[in-house]
Amino acid sequence: MITAVLLPFLLLVIIGLLVLWPGGAPPHERTGLGFDQEIQHGEVTRVEQLPCSETIGPGANPQDPGTGSTGTTASAALTASTVPTASAISATSASSGGSGGSVGGGAGTTTEEDAECTRLTIRVTTGPDTGLEITQSLGSDQVITPYEIGEGVVLAYNPDAEPALRYSLSDRTRGFPMVLLAALFALAVVVVGGLRGVTALVALVISFLVLTLFVLPAILQGSNPLLVAVVGGGAIMLVALYLCHGFTARTSVAVLGTLASLALITLLGWLFIEVSKLTGLTSDEVTLVHGLYPDLDVRGLLLAGFVIGSLGVLDDVTVTQTSAVWELKHADPSMSRAALYRAGLRIGRDHIASTVNTLVLAYAGAAMPLLLLFTMAQQSVWAVATSELIAEEVVRTLVGSIGLVASVPLTTALAAIVAAEEGGRRPSGGAGGGSGGGGGRFGGGAGDGLRGVAGSARRLGAAAGGRLLPGGGGGGQGRRRRAKG
Question: Are residues 20 and 42 in the same domain?
């Protein structure tokens, strides 16, 4: 039964990958907005704290044609900045009388003369102007974390602009802390998870490659976002589950449970995107992408996000439920399908109670700044929840949660049927074909705990039966004698 369902799905995923494979993102002319800009790197060589009147007045940052050094002021930086901010708006309004890349200090300026600003001298370290030094002046509201000499920075680069506007400070370089954090994560996974942890990391890398080499470029090339998400998500699911948990019957049950739940999420997501009239154009990033690629199906992209976003948490639930049912059957081989289903469902209810709350809090945490804005505006909860910006996240959260809840009875029922037929046999191999003695199980520690609880309950039931039922004790002794024989 399992093979009859999974083989066609596997073939469809392979065919989908071959047909939809993009071969890279399509080229386009850069706009210089947001992330769609050319960047170079630089290093801070000097940090000065000066009165703002000295950094944004006429001639504060002169251009030196002899050396090629440029002086770009706050207004120049904002001209080529990546994303407009509140500080950018105030600085732009203050510079309405300026010209030539410097902010005029006329009557319209709102900057106090005694306010302190930061002027950075930055040496360009990459690109055609390597070695060039530029200056950047920043207001106090733009420097939340102070800059240090020797610190690496990211520069927005516009080769077609005037020399004074060619470079502007865009971001800081964070390569070392990000690599360090990734190394600590990998170390923790390997130390705690052993060989299973190594396979999990390999699956994570493959998932990332599928997203970056297939899903994203294929969507940009005009393929249906939902179809791409289903094919890419299917590939990620198959690789992650079979690589981490081995080619066993219970891994296949987890795959089937995940697949059925994803189908439900896709159906509900499509239905409520239509009913709620969601457009998907709720962020600057989506608006920019839609402007660059007008033929992109933005609503399909929204639904594709539902599918990809739900995949990870569904894997967790389906694997846990399948493992629980198998351990219950191994602890008591006499359990029927119905008994396995009821016991597994009780375990799943505890899991669901915590996982649903985790989903809601994760989305709320990601949208915290947005929720603060609505709170400041003193709008009612109903008005906030029904605005498209929040409604999109509400639909995403609730659709994913419904699929998550449905995955418990679906996976438990499938696992009970297959486990009853197999008699609760443990797979002999490890993850991917040999991770040691316990490698064939989903999470050995959890499985041992379930087996111990079920075994204790069975022994207590047998003991109680021996005391309460006539002849029960003799039957128990006879079973023990047969077991010894």
Answer: no
How many domains does the chain fold into? 2
Give pLDDT, residue 424.
Answer: 52
Q: Cα(404)–Cα(396) distance, rounded to whole angstroms?
A: 12
Residue 238, both tokens: 């198959």
Distance CA 266, CA 276 (A): 15
The whole-angstrom separation of Cα 427 and Cα 443 is 13
pLDDT tens sequence across 28-47: 666 666 566 788 999 999 99
Q: Are 352 and 405 in contact (CB under 8 A)?
A: yes
As a whole number, mean pLDDT of residues 61-74 equals: 39
The structure tokens listed for 150 are 């020797």
Instruction: For the chain, report the end-to-end CA distance as a whole number of angstroms.
Output: 37
User: Are 314 and 427 spatial neighbours (Cβ–Cβ below 8 Å)?
Assistant: no
Please indicate whether residue 195 or residue 111 has the higher confidence score (pLDDT). Answer: 195
Sign (positive/negative) of CA torsion 86, 89, 90, 91? Answer: positive
pLDDT digits (tens, 9 = 90+) for 373-408: 777 877 787 888 888 888 898 898 899 889 999 999
Q: Name the domain boundary from 372, 402, 422.
A: 422
**Which residue among 422, 451, 475 closes a domain?**
422
Range of the domain at 68: 38-103+112-175
| CA pair distance 120, 465, nearest whole angstrom | 82
Q: What DSSP line would sit under 442-474, residue for residue?
A: SSHHHHHHHHHHHHHHHHHHHHHHHHHSTTHHH
Q: Phi/psi of residue 4, each to 5°? A: -65, -25
SS3 content of the chain, % helix, strand, coil (to 5): 60, 10, 30
Global pTM value = 0.68
- Helices 472-484, 444-468: inter-axial angle, 10-degree rounding: 130
pLDDT in tens, 225-252: 999 999 999 999 999 999 998 888 889 9
